Amino acid sequence: MQVTSAIREPLVTGGKTMHDITEDICKRVEEKPSMSWLIAFGFSVVLFIIGCLSLASTWWYGIGVWGLNKTVGWAWDITNFVWWVGIGHAGTLISAVLLLFRQKWRTSINRAAEAMTIFAVLCAGSFILMHMGRTWLAHWALPLPNTYGSLWVNFHSPLVWDVFAISTYLTVSTVFWYVGLIPDLATIRDRAKLTLEQNPLLATDTPAERAEKKKNRRPIAAFAYGILAFGWEGGSKVWARYEYVALILAGLSTPLVLSVHTIVSMDFATSVIPGWHTTIFPPYFVAGAIFSGFAMVLTLMLVTRVVYKLEDYITMEHIDLMNKIVMLTGSIVGVAYITEFFIAWYSGVEAESYAFLNRMFGPYWWSYWAMMTCNVISPQLFWFKSIRRNLIWSFVLSVVVNIGMWFERFVIIVTSLHRDYIPSSWTYFRPTIYDVGDYIFSFGLFFVCFFLFAKYLPVINMAEVKTVLNSSDEQAKKLAEEKLKH
Amino acid sequence: MATHTSDTKKYLVGIYDHEETVVNAVKKVQNDGVKIDEVYSPHPIHHIDVYIGHPRTKIPIAAFMFGATGTLLAITMITFMMKIDWPMIIGGKNALYPPTMVPVSFEATVLIAALGMVATFLLSNTMGPGKTEFMFDRRTTDDKYALVVDLDKNTKNVEEIQAILEKHGASEAPKVVER
């Protein structure tokens, strides 16, 4: 039996029944695409096409079209990779970590957050493939038998750990997302198949009757969702196994989140250059990933809940809780910045101290101060409840945080590379139109995937919301409050 | 209408509207001497499988074994590649250094455990792409709960079981379904 808290706000408002949940979410899948969806999707496709043109040039001419040089060997490519991977971590945190902590409020946002994770990791992976230059030799990063000896990969290198980490993260996230989708796909399947059963085409039908029935039938949905639902029937034995699978996947995904971004941080931490070679990177990167990931979930959910009229499912309480997590992780990131700076001075290592002074006052000072403003100051505004519960502020600050986190990766990578130990190697990096174009490609890819998901799949996990409905709707709260009074 | 042949079985399906009602019904119907085959619901109901008498799933054990396999595979692979087949001195360090095996072994553990467990889940439920479902009532993926009784496994007759299901909260007259 689920416990109803008398002091927490209800997670589902509007007096919803289980059938209401089904209707509200399934109708978005079943209805024809709206004008707003078509415009948004069309815009994403345009971004994607522009990006593909840029990508085609990058592959044809080589990564010399980027602004990289011998000193600054990584810039926008790896900044974008780390940015997208970081964004992906919130989805896994919401699905996995909040499940382990029995946080019922995750149920209305976890499906969209997991989808965001998968698409973000795809975007991240695209940068890895791009930055190899000879993408057709990407299989050389895998320990496959070959005709060169076999020449194996270097398992001591975090770049190789990354190959395993990112591939595992993408696979496990997709599997977790899809297993969770199955019961809801069965719901959509059954609604479609009911339209066929309730409107059978008979030989005795008049043309008018036949036309009317055909309007109500959804044979394509019945067929497509029938395949995707994997034959789900919803018996108690299957549900029991499903719950174990979800719990174990959550238990596996939680250390996976921590390990993946730790390994990404090791790409920098295991090097020798000032500003990179620091043990703070693993927790710093993980906290930063959750920070930017939650901000992106907020950006997406604030728009989705308005467009799809899901305010009764993604309530102000959900937004408040997500903003609190943004504030917490933003504070951790702020503390990490101060620690880094302090240690750079306290260590007495001249090169390290110079690296930080260069970040603050050197040629890239504008990126450093953008990072500090966006990442340190803005999440502190969420101490104020009026701001946490304001939709406009939440949206603006979530975008600001993501901009700040992009600058954080840019500052770490470019400012440390452009001036390291030997002054005669010092250079200045400037992005070219292809750096920008390939970044636009990733936005196009992400939003094309996300809008297709939002249209053709249920954005909220109906089965999980139904599970918490009895204990977390307004009626249950009223009863619990009355019990508390007596 | 399907005729009863030796390949088809007859079931009695009781429909319930609320989780508490169906959970109480499961306990009381069994006390009244009726053996329940299955309960279908739009969401998981904690412990109802225990009340019905289904055996505990062995999926966690499968997950553990797949995970252990992943760990062993990764350690074996790395040891073979870095120590046995082509050992190299990289950066002046040992060819094989156990701490550096940890990230890849961990990832392989998680990957094989996750994929293996999900494959086990799908196989044990005979689920897969394009598998055709049999639904006693398609509303059980929306907002209804179906309590299904296998008439062949019960000594009571249909009318008696119908009366028991209705007595314990069935919202509609229980219907006979052939499968």
Give structural notes.
- The complex is a heterodimer of chains A (486) and B (179).
- Chain A is 71% helix and 0% strand.
- Chain A has 17 helices and no strands.
- In chain B, α3 packs antiparallel against α4.
- Chain B starts with 9 loop residues before the first strand and ends with a strand.
- The model of chain B has no long low-confidence stretch (mean pLDDT 93).
- The chains are: A mainly alpha (486), B alpha+beta (179).
- The interface between A and B is large, with 70 and 65 residues.
Question: What topology emerges from the helices and strands here?
Answer:
The complex is a heterodimer of chains A (486) and B (179).
Chain A: H1 18-30, H2 35-61, H3 76-100, H4 110-131, H5 158-198, H6 207-216, H7 219-228, H8 236-269, H9 281-307, H10 316-346, H11 350-361, H12 365-380, H13 385-388, H14 391-418, H15 433-456, H16 462-472, H17 474-485
Chain B: E1 10-16, H1 19-31, E2 38-40, H2 48-52, H3 59-85, H4 98-124, E3 145-150, H5 158-167, E4 175-178
Antiparallel strand pairs in B: 1-3, 1-4, 2-3
Query: SSE order of chain B, as H and E?
Result: EHEHHHEHE
Proportion in β-strands of chain A: under 5%
Number of domains of chain B: 2
Number of helices of chain B: 5
Structural class of chain A: mainly alpha
CATH topology of chain A: Formate dehydrogenase/DMSO reductase fold
CATH architecture assignment name of chain A = Up-down Bundle
Structural class of chain B: alpha+beta
Low-confidence stretches of chain B: none
Mean pLDDT of chain B: 93
Q: Secondary-structure element order of chain A, as H and E?
A: HHHHHHHHHHHHHHHHH
- CATH H-level superfamily of chain A: Formate dehydrogenase/DMSO reductase domain
- How helix-rich are the residues of chain B, as a percent range? 40-55%
